[in-house]
Design goal:
- The chain is an alpha+beta fold.
- It has 41 helices and 46 strands.
- The strands form 12 sheets. It has a 12-stranded mixed sheet, with helices on both faces.
- The longest helix is centred in the middle third of the chain and has 26 residues.
- It is globular, with a radius of gyration of 38 Å.
- The relative contact order is 0.06.
Length: 1278
C-alpha cells in the first residue's frame, strides 16, 4: 500500500535549474570534447586508466611523478600529463565539481577549533541525483503485507517503516531522509579523526550497505581535541559535549531552512520532485548515543528506565521530548536554573544540542539499534566470557581448536580465551560456533547445563532474528519471545556466581529492537558495520596521503579528487554502455573450475584409497541404472546396477565446486547471488616446506527430490528454541551428506557423497544440481575434549634476536640463550614493568626459545608455550632478554653441574654462584638484567641470592603459578622473583602472583591476580608513614586497628648445622640487632623440629623419581608432554649424561619405590607436622630470622671430580632453605654483610645472606622488614 495524496509527485524543473548530477548534465559540463571522446578530459582510454590507477591504487604523488620522469615512460604511454601536479590540475579544474569542503571555526572553553565539513543539502543532492541510484530511489512510503487480508505487516527498507509514513502524513510531501553515522577511529599512532557520514533513506539499503557503491557520503571531520587543559573531569566532559553539538549544529543548520517549503531536487534520471530533507536517525555506538541524547552514561538513550532496573528485561516507551525541550529552554534563565532543570529532566546540561531546532525530530526515537557494538561486541562478548567462567577457558578453547575446517567458518586454532581487541567479524565467527561448543558440556560437578544452554540458545536466536533482511509482525514476535526466554533463564549465571546482576545498557537496549525495526525498517538499514570500511577509504587512506601537516585540509582535497574519479568512472561506463542501464548479473547454480584439479584422470582405486570414496563403482553403477530407468527403486535398482558394465575406470576430478543461490531480497544490479564453495580435497603436501595438509571434505544439504525452498516443512518457532519440526525428525526432503569426490561423467556432472543415518553409512552418485548448499555439522565432543597447551600470541609478543651467546660474550657462562621479547602494545611503555629487563631461569618455558635445562640428555627442545609468569611479565610491559643457565636438571645447589659448563660467582669467578638458578643471579649482579625469575625446590632462588648478594624470594607455595615451568616435584615446586633490591622484588611479585586456573599447586586461599596485595603501593605507604616495622594487632587484647612493633624471632636451631660457619652466625646476629635499633622487637625462639627437616626432606627427595621417569604426578596442571618425549625412554647414553646428583636421585627413587613404598607417604605426614611447628611459633612472632646459608661461596670443583666429593661440597647447604620448601612458608633472602672465605684470602669479601621467613601469604611483612633494613644499612660495608 502506497501513501496517497501528493507524495512523490513530479514537479516542473525550476527556472535556470540543471539536474547537476545526471549523466547528460555531467556530459554537458565536460564540454564539446566529450561528444566524441568518452574519456574526456583525458585523451584516451590508456590516459584515463593510468590516471585512475594512480589516484585509486597507485603510489603517492611523489613516487608517481618520479615514475613518469623516467625517460621513455610518459612517451611510451602517450600520456597527457607529465607529473602528478598536472594530473591533479586536470581533476581539479576539468572534472565537474562534487560537494566541496569548507573550513569554519567553533569556540569552546576559550579555544578555537577548526571544523571541515560540506553543505548537507549539497550532499543530499549528490546522493539523490546520482544516476546510478536512480532506478533504486523510493519517493513514497509504503506498507507491505504478508497476507492478502493485510493483517501481517512486513518491514525491510526505510520506506516500509512507520516513521516515514507518519512524518509524511504530517507534511504531505516526499522525503529524502538523511541519517548520520559517526565514529572516532585511530588513523595513525596517537592521531584520531571523527568523521561524520550521511545517507538518505530514499535509497535502497542494498546500495547503502555496500561501501563500494558509494551510497554514503562523508559529511565532515569533527575536532578530536581532548581539552586536557581543563582539569575538572566533569567540566571537561561538558566542554567536549558542547564542542560536538556546536559542530553538528553548524553542519546541519541548512536543514532548518527547508522545513516549510522544501527544496526541489532532481534524481539521476533528470526528474524533479520537491523534497524535505529531515533528520531521521543517528547511527553510532553507545557512547555516541549518550552524547547525542544527553543521557548520562549508563542509562538508556531511548527510554527513561532507572539504571538499577536495566537488567529487569523490561523496556519503557521513548522519553517525552516536551519536558526536555522545556529544560533546554531554561538556558536563558541562568546556568544554575538550567542545570537544575536538566537534572530534573534526566539529561546532561548541554546548551543548544544540535537537534534542538531541527524540524520533525524526536531524538529519542532516532537512536537506532547497533548490531555490531550492542550485540556482537556487547552482549555476545559478555556471553562468551560468562561461558568461559562456567565451563573453563581450557575446555572451550580445546573445542574451538578441534572444529572441522570449512571455508565459511573460521576455526580459532589458538582458542578464543586469548583473543584481544576482538573485532565484530571475529565475534560473528565465534557466534556461529558458540552453541556447538557447549551443547553437550556439563557444568562443574556434573550439574545439568540445560538452563544455561536455553539462555545461550535464546540469545543466539535473538541475534540471528535481529539480522533478518525482511521482518514481519510474526518474526518480530518470535524475536521478542527469544529475548524473553533469555531473561527467563539468565538467573543461571547468577546462581553459578558468574554475575551479580544484569545492569548492562547494551543488553537492555536490545529490548527496543522491535520498536525501531517497525519504525525504520530492518537493522541492515542502519548498521555501524558499514562505516568500518568507510573509515579506511575516507579517513585512514586520506591521512596516509597527506604529509601529516595540516592534514584535515589535505584529506578533504584528496577525498574530493577520489569522489570525482569515481563519478567520472560511472560516467564512462554509462557512455560505453551506450546510455543503457547496468545489466543484472546472475551466475549459474553450479560452477566448476575450467580445468580438473588433477591433471590426469584419477583411477577408481585412488578415489577409494585417497578420497575415501570406497563404494564408487557400485554407486556409479546405481546412478547409471537409475538414469536409464528413473522408476527403479530398492531391490530392482540393486539388481539393475549389478548388471551394469562400467565403460571407464578413471574420471576427471575437481577439488572444489561453486554454488550460487539467488538472494531474493537484493534489488540492485550487482552480482546478487550468495556464493557457496564446497571442497573435496584429499590430504596432500603443502607448497611451502612440504608440510602435510589434512584433507578437506565438506558436508552439504542434498535435495532428495522432495525438498522445498528451505527444506523445512511443518516447522514452527518455539520460544527460545528456534525453528522446530513438529511432524518429522529431520529436514523434510533433504539429507546431509559428506562430499568425497567431484567428477565429470561425459556430459552429466555427478558427485559421490556419504550420508550418515541411523549409524549406517551409504554412498550415492548424484547430480551437482541436487545440492542446495554447503552444511556445517558440529562434532559430538562428548563430555570433554582433549586438553592442549595455552596458545602463544606471537603477534602481540614477537620473539626476536634469539641466539646462543659465544664464549667471548658469556664470560661467566651465565647466559643459556639470548632473545628479545616485548609487547607491541601500549603496555610496553605504560605497564608497571615497562623498560625493565627480565631474565628467566632455563627451566621456564619461553615459546620459540631453546630450553637446555642444564643437561645434555636432550639438546633440541624448543617450548611451544609461554609460562604464565612469562605472559604476565610481558603484559606488564617487561622485556624478556633471554634465559640464564641453570644446574643439571635443576638438582644441585653448586654452580658447576650445567652441561654448558660451570657458572662463576661475580665476586670471584672461581667460586660457586649458587644453584640451581645460578645464571639469573649472576646476570642481575652484572647489570645485564634488572629482574629475574627463579625456581626453588630446595633453595634454588635463595642459594644464588645469598652467594651473589641479591634479593631472592621463595613465595608461599602456590602464590605464583608454576604453569609452563619444568617440574622437579609438584609438592615443592616454587617460582619467584630475584632482584638487586627489595622494592623491585616486590614489584615483580605483584605482577606474577595470583591464580591462573591451570595449576593445582595453587592451593585454597591463593588470591586471584586482582586480589594480590599491591606490594609496591603498600610498601611506599608504610615507608611514608614510617611504619615499615609496625604491624596491626588483631590476635591479642589490643583494640583492632592499633599497631605494635614487629616481632622478629631468631631461630636458634637455624644456627646449629654441623657445617655452620660461626662467623656467618655472628654476621646475621649483628644484622638482627640492627632491627632493634630500627624499632623492631627481636627475640630468640626455638623450633626443635627444624633440625629434623633436612632428614625428612632427604627421605622425601629419595622418592622424586616421577618426573625423571616421565610419570604423571596426578596434579592438575599443564603437562609438558613434548619434553617428556625428549627424555623418555631412558637409555644408557642418556643416563651417563646425567650429573651424579641427578642420576643418584633416579636410582634412589627406584630403590625406594621397590623396597620402601610407604616412605613417600610417611615423609608427607611428617612435613605436615613440621608445618604445624612453624605455624605455632608464628603465633608469637611475625618473622623468623636465620642465616640463609651456613657458609659463603666455596671454590668450584672440577665437573669430573668423584661423586662423593661433589656431595661433600654441598653438605648442609640447604639446612635452612629446604625446610620451607617442604612446608610452603614464604622465605626471603637479603644480603646482610660480607665475609672472607675461611681459607682466605683476607681481602676477598663474599656476600652473606639473611633469611626472613613469614606466615602463609604474608610476603608483605617480609618485604616491609627487609626494606626497612636495606634502607638503613649498606650491607657491603658490614
Amino acid at each position: 500500500m502506497k501513501f496517497g495524496e501528493q507524495a512523490g509527485c513530479v514537479i516542473e524543473a525550476p527556472k535556470d535549474a540543471q539536474p547537476q548530477y545526471s549523466n547528460t548534465s555531467y556530459q554537458s559540463l565536460l564540454g564539446a570534447a566529450s561528444t566524441d571522446n568518452p574519456w574526456s578530459p583525458f585523451q584516451s582510454k590508456l590516459d584515463w586508466e593510468v590516471e585512475k590507477w594512480a589516484k585509486l591504487r597507485g603510489p603517492g604523488d611523489t613516487s608517481f611523478s618520479e615514475l613518469l620522469a623516467i625517460e621513455g615512460v610518459r612517451e611510451s604511454l602517450n600520456l597527457s600529463f607529465r607529473n602528478a601536479k598536472e594530473l591533479n590540475s586536470i581533476i581539479d579544474d576539468m572534472l565537474p565539481k562534487r560537494p566541496a569542503f569548507c573550513c569554519d571555526e567553533v569556540s569552546v572553553a576559550g579555544m578555537i577549533f577548526d571544523i571541515y565539513f560540506r553543505d548537507v543539502l549539497e550532499c543530499a543532492r549528490a546522493l539523490y541525483g546520482d544516476p546510478e541510484f536512480a532506478p533504486y530511489l523510493v519517493f513514497v512510503p509504503e506498507r507491505h503485507y504478508l497476507d492478502r487480508d493485510e493483517t501481517v505487516r512486513l518491514y525491510h527498507d526505510m520506506h516500509t517503516g512507520k516513521w516515514w509514513w507518519s512524518t509524511q502524513k504530517s507534511r504531505k510531501y516526499i522525503l529524502a531522509r538523511p541519517s548520520f553515522q559517526s565514529s572516532s577511529p585511530p588513523i595513525k599512532c596517537n592521531k584520531t579523526a571523527y568523521p561524520i557520514y550521511m545517507t538518505i533513506g530514499s535509497l535502497s539499503k542494498d546500495i547503502r550497505r555496500k561501501p563500494s557503491r558509494h551510497g554514503q557520503i562523508l559529511l565532515g571531520y569533527l575536532p578530536t581535541i581532548k581539552l586536557e587543559h581543563i582539569k575538572d573531569p566533569s567540566e571537561r566532559r561538558r566542554a567536549l559535549a558542547d564542542l560536538f553539538h556546536q559542530c553538528m549544529r553548524k553542519i546541519l543548520k541548512p536543514l532548518q531552512k527547508a522545513r516549510v517549503t522544501g527544496i526541489p531536487m532532481a534524481s539521476g534520471d533528470g526528474v524533479w520532485r520537491r523534497c524535505h530533507p529531515i533528520f531521521a536517525a543517528y547511527i553510532g555506538d553507545y557512547p555516541e548515543q549518550t552524547l547525542v541524547t544527553l543521557v548520562k552514561y549508563g542509562g538508556c538513550p531511548t527510554c527513561p528506565i532507572p539504571i538499577e532496573e536495566l537488567g529487569s528485561g523490561k523496556t519503557l516507551p521513548p522519553r517525552d521530548l516536551e519536558p526536555i525541550q522545556a529544560a533546554l529552554a531554561k538556558f536563558r534563565c541562568g546556568i544554575g536554573t538550567f542545570e537544575e532543570a536538566c537534572h530534573d529532566a534526566g539529561i546532561k546540561a548541554v546548551a543548544h544540542p544540535f537537534w534542538e531546532d531541527l524540524p520533525y525530530v524526536h531524538i529519542y526515537r532516532s537512536i537506532t539499534p547497533d548490531i555490531l557494538h550492542q550485540l556482537y561486541q556487547g552482549v555476545i562478548k559478555h556471553l562468551v566470557a560468562w561461558l568461559q567462567d562456567a565451563f573453563g577457558t581450557e575446555e572451550i578453547d580445546a573445542r574451538c581448536t578441534r572444529m572441522p575446517p570449512n571455508r565459511h567458518v573460521r576455526i580459532f586454532k589458538k582458542g578464543i580465551s586469548t583473543l584481544s581487541r576482538v573485532s565484530g567479524e571475529e565475534h560473528r565467527d565465534i557466534y556461529r560456533l558458540l552453541l556447538g561448543l557447549i551443547v553437550d558440556l556439563r557444568l562443574p560437578g556434573g550439574a545439568s547445563s540445560a538452563r544455561l544452554v536455553r539462555a545461550v540458545r535464546a540469545m543466539l536466536d535473538f541475534l540471528y532474528l535481529a539480522q533478518y533482511p525482511v521482518h514481519s509482525d510474526e518474526t518480530l514476535q518470535s524475536m521478542d519471545e527469544a529475548l524473553q526466554t533469555f531473561h527467563e533463564n539468565k538467573q543461571v549465571f547468577i546462581d553459578l556466581g558468574i554475575r551479580e546482576d544484569f545492569v548492562l545498557p547494551k543488553l537492555h537496549n536490545v529490548g527496543h529492537y522491535s520498536y525501531y525495526i517497525q519504525l525504520y525498517g530492518t537493522t541492515d538499514n542502519y548498521s555501524t558495520e558499514y562505516t568500518e570500511r568507510l573509515h579506511i577509504d575516507y579517513t585512514k587512506d586520506a591521512y596516509r596521503a597527506s604529509n601529516k601537516k595540516d592534514e584535515f585540509r589535505q584529506m578533504a582535497i584528496w577525498l574530493e579528487r577520489k569522489e570525482k574519479i569515481h563519478r567520472h568512472d560511472q560516467y564512462i561506463k554509462w557512455r560505453l554502455r551506450k546510455n543503457a542501464p547496468a545489466p543484472c548479473i546472475h551466475l549459474p547454480h553450479v560452477t566448476l573450475p575450467l580445468h580438473p584439479s588433477v591433471r590426469s584422470l584419477v583411477p577408481f582405486d585412488t578415489l577409494a584409497n585417497k578420497y575415501g570414496a570406497y563404494d564408487i563403482r557400485n554407486a556409479l553403477a546405481s546412478f547409471i541404472a537409475k538414469t536409464i530407468n528413473p522408476s527403479l527403486t530398492g531391490l530392482r535398482l540393486e539388481r539393475a546396477a549389478a548388471k551394469e558394465w562400467l565403460p571407464l575406470q578413471s574420471v576427471p576430478v575437481y577439488h572444489k565446486v561453486t554454488f550460487a543461490n539467488p538472494d531474493p531480497f537484493v534489488r540492485t544490479n550487482d552480482v546478487s547471488d550468495d556464493l557457496d564453495i564446497v571442497d573435496a580435497r584429499p590430504a596432500h603436501l603443502g607448497r611451502h616446506r612440504g608440510q602435510s595438509v589434512p584433507g578437506k571434505f565438506n558436508t552439504v544439504l542434498v535435495d532428495m527430490g522432495r525438498g522445498g525452498s528451505t527444506g523445512l516443512r511443518g516447522a514452527s518457532y518455539v520460544g527460545g528454541l528456534g525453528w522446530q519440526l513438529t511432524d518429522c525428525d529431520r529436514l523434510e526432503g533433504y539429507r546431509a551428506a559428506q562430499v568425497r569426490v567431484v567428477f565429470k561423467l561425459k556430459h552429466d556432472i555427478t558427485r559421490a557423497y556419504r550420508n550418515q543415518s541411523a549409524g549406517i553409512c551409504d554412498a550415492a552418485v548424484i547430480p551437482l544440481a541436487r545440492i542446495k548448499r554447503s552444511l556445517y555439522l558440529f562434532p559430538v565432543f562428548g563430555p570433554e575434549a582433549p586438553h592442549f597447551l595455552p596458545p602463544v600470541d606471537y603477534t602481540r609478543f614477537p620473539r626476536k634476536d634469539i641466539s646462543k651467546p659465544p664464549p667471548e660474550e658469556n664470560a661467566y657462562n651465565a647466559w643459556s640463550a639470548k632473545a628479545t621479547v616485548v609487547s607491541t602494545g601500549p603496555e610496553a611503555t605504560l605497564g608497571p614493568l615497562a623498560g625493565r629487563k627480565v631474565i628467566l631461569k632455563d627451566n621456564v618455558c619461553l615459546a620459540g626459545v631453546p630450553c637446555e635445562f642444564g643437561t645434555a640428555v636432550f639438546s633440541d627442545w624448543i617450548p611451544t608455550m609461554d609460562a604464565t609468569v612469562v605472559t604476565r611479565i610481558l603484559e606488564a610491559g617487561g622485556t624478556i632478554i633471554g634465559k640464564g643457565t641453570c644446574e643439571n636438571f635443576c638438582a644441585y645447589g653448586v654452580s658447576n653441574t650445567a652441561a654448558s659448563g660451570p657458572v662463576g660467582n661475580p665476586f670471584d669467578k672461581t667460586r660457586s654462584a649458587g644453584g640451581s638458578t645460578s645464571g639469573v643471579a649472576v646476570l642481575i649482579v652484572q647489570g645485564d638484567a634488572d629482574l629475574g625469575i627463579g625456581g626453588d625446590q630446595g633453595g634454588s632462588i635463595r642459594i644464588p641470592a645469598s652467594h651473589c648478594g641479591i634479593v631472592g624470594l621463595k613465595p608461599t607455595f602456590g602464590l605464583v603459578p608454576y604453569t609452563g615451568i619444568i617440574s622437579s616435584e609438584t609438592s615443592i615446586d616454587h617460582t619467584g622473583p630475584m632482584s638487586r633490591d627489595v622494592f623491585s622484588n616486590a614489584e615483580l611479585l605483584k605482577v606474577i602472583a595470583g591464580v591462573d586456573g591451570m595449576d593445582d599447586r595453587q592451593i585454597a586461599g591463593t588470591p586471584f591476580p586482582g586480589q594480590v596485595p599491591d606490594y609496591p603501593v603498600l610498601l611506599s605507604a608504610a615507608r611514608s608513614a614510617k611504619a615499615l616495622l609496625s604491624v596491626g594487632e588483631n590476635r591479642s587484647g589490643l583494640t583492632p586497628g592499633n599497631t605494635r612493633k614487629l616481632r622478629i624471632g631468631i631461630l636458634k636451631e637455624g644456627e646449629t648445622s654441623h657445617v655452620m660457619d660461626l662467623r656467618v652466625v655472628a654476621c646475621v646476629r649483628t644484622a638482627a640487632k640492627r632491627f632493634e635499633a630500627l624499632g623492631a622487637e627481636v627475640v630468640e625462639v626455638s623450633v626443635p623440629g627444624h633440625t629434623q627437616a633436612p632428614l625428612i626432606g632427604r627421605a622425601y627427595r629419595l622418592t622424586q623419581s616421577n618426573n625423571l621417569l616421565g610419570r604423571s604426578s596426578g596434579t592438575r596442571q599443564v603437562y609438558l608432554n613434548d619434553l617428556t618425549d625428549k627424555i623418555m625412554p631412558w637409555t644408557q647414553d642418556k643416563f651417563e649424561k646425567l650429573f651424579s646428583n641427578s642420576s643418584s636421585s633416579l636410582i634412589q627413587g627406584l630403590f625406594a619405590d621397590q623396597y620402601y613404598p610407604s616412605l613417600h607417604g610417611k615423609a608427607h605426614n611428617l612435613i605436615r607436622r613440621l608445618r604445624l611447628d612453624y605455624d605455632n611459633i608464628f603465633k608469637d612472632v611475625d618473622i623468623l630470622l636465620m642465616p640463609t646459608l651456613p657458609y659463603v661461596a666455596k671454590k668450584l670443583l672440577p665437573q669430573d671430580a668423584p661423586p662423593l666429593t661433589h656431595f661433600e661440597a654441598q653438605w648442609g647447604l640447604t639446612f635452612n632453605t629446604f625446610p620451607f620448601n617442604l612446608t610452603g612458608h614464604p622465605a626471603l633472602s637479603v644480603p646482610c654483610g660480607m665475609l672472607s672465605p675461611p681459607e682466605g684470602p683476607e681481602d676477598l669479601k663474599l656476600p652473606v645472606g639473611m633469611q626472613l621467613v613469614g606466615r602463609y601469604l604474608d610476603e608483605l611483612a617480609l618485604y616491609k622488614a627487609a626494606l626497612a633494613w636495606e634502607e638503613a644499612n649498606n650491607w657491603k660495608t658490614l
